[in-house]
Structures are given as structure tokens and as C-alpha cells.
What we know:
This protein is 45% helix and 20% strand. By secondary structure, the chain is an alpha+beta fold. It has 2 domains: 2-102, no CATH class; 111-163, no CATH class. Strands 1, 2, 3 and 4 form a 4-stranded antiparallel β-sheet that branches. It starts with a helix and ends with a strand.
Amino acid sequence: MEEQVAIFCDVDDFCKDYEKYCTRSLLMDKQEIVPKTRMALSEIITILILYHLSGYRTFKWYYLYHVRKYLKQDFPTLVSYNRFVEIMRYALVPLLRYTIRARFGKCSGISFVDSTPIRVCDNHRISSHRVFSKYAKRGKNSTGWFYGFKLHLIINDEGEILSA
């Protein structure tokens, strides 16, 4: 329980700074960051983080049978599962920024680098693919050629992400 409160406080502090940054630097209204909903952005992000720490296999089961049952007093403005899934996508960019800012590990002297391909389309459709045509490139890894991006991760010896 204390861990959940600590995560929420950390996320809430981040979200306050993030909303200030968006309204000041990006000229965005608060409603453009997250659409009109009863839940705060920090509550949405906290639920998503707690899901990944929970061990549940599906988010639907976690939300319906854990959050709505055991965390109702911690999140009094919970919305229905369908509404949460609709607004969850607005938390992706802030969650990524939070992860980069607050949750990367520290270098301990031993680091590992690995990469994985993020395929944009099948190799046969490269010539007709237009969505990422300016950014995606052909690449090769141990399993063969692909068209898309390569995600490189650097982790320390404790499994914490140092950079991406």
C-alpha cells in the first residue's frame, strides 16, 4: 500500500509539471492533454503503472476485479472500464516522458546493449508503404531483412533501462 501511495505522489508531481509545460510551452489547453473526464491524468498513469507491477495477465481483469474492488477508495472518481480504455491512450506520451525522466536506472559500470526491429510493413509492400516513408529504413538483424526501425536498449547489470 505504501508503494502505491509513493508511486501516485511521484506521478502526481510529474503530471503537475507536465501540464504546466504543455500549457506554457506547447500552447495547449488542459483539455487537449486529456479529454474531459472525472479522473486526473496522474490517476490514469498510476493505474497503468500498478497494472504492470501487479502480475495480472490482462488489463481488463486487473481493472474490473482489482481496481474496482480493492482500489475504489484510493481512486474515488473511477470511470467504467470502457471509458478508461478510451482515455488511456492520452496517457501514453506523459507515461513515456515520466518513464524517461524518473524511472531510468543508474550506470553501475556494467552495461548491456541490445536491439530489436520494429517492423512497419511486410517486405513485399515497401514500395507502396507511405505512412513512415520518410523515417523508416531497410535493416537487417539475425533473423533477416526488415523495413522499419530498430529499438536499441541499454540496461545495467540489475536490468534497469539506462537509455533507449
